Hints:
single chain; mainly alpha; 14 helices; 78% helix; 0% strand; globular
Amino acid sequence: MKTVNMIAAFVNKYLIYIMIVLMILAYFMPQPFLWIPPRITNLLSIIMFCMGMTLNFNAFKMVAIQPKAFIIGLLFQFTISPLVAYALAQLFGLSSDLVIGFVLLGSVSGGTASNVMTFIGKGDVALTVSMTTISTLLATLVTPFLTYLLAGKYTDISFVQMLLSVLQMVLLPIILGVIVHRLMHHYIDRWLQTFVLISSVSILLIVAGTVAKNGAVIVQSGLIVILLVLLHNLIGYGAGYGLSRMLGVSAKQAKSIMFQLGMKNTGLAISLANAHFATIAAAVTPAAVGMVIHQITGPILANLVSKKEGN
């Protein structure tokens, strides 16, 4: 167990560097990684199961304890983020394929990495864990609806099929994880780092497989996609913190909302793109680029705001 903990600590500390190396390898030597794309849905389900294994009542307590900050954060995730993504894609005249990809990126829930960044940035960790949990559960319904609403005119989208796939990828594994946690709650603590390691490895495999399959399309999409994904990310941070403070949320809570809004569940967006838009290669590009950008901007911002305590 000590060895597993050491490996988990190493992977988490150097995750972005490992990710970049794997991306380079997958781009120039894709063949060894091409077994991954057909299994991305399974990898996301593993991540969701591990998330469920770590959940307990504390993950939901902020709904009752601090409803204002919780509700604001949740509403921002499913209004500001998708609308900004759609607006940026329209404003810069992106192709319909990329519009679909940006809508997917904006419509998914906050990513689990936001919990870590909130901790580093000295935000309200309990609040962000609650938001991650509830927004991930809500995404099973809201993400398919937003994708259908904002991108339905660009291609045939079956709301029911997307809903069922998200239920299978997200909700069912989380429920199973919670059940297993309940049955084995006396032994969970010693296995927490193992779940973290499994999740991290699954994320790395998703990135490598996505680049191996779509590397050429990602590169051909050009600098504009990278800049727009970065802009979407930064607007999320800025709006999350600034608007929260304007609405009377404390600085500590606003940091939590900031990371939730800026760091999206790119794994879910990639999985949905592969599952429902496999013939539209560019649809996966914004989420694939976002997976890398979020891992770069998140730690930088977390270290900056950690010096600003506030109330």
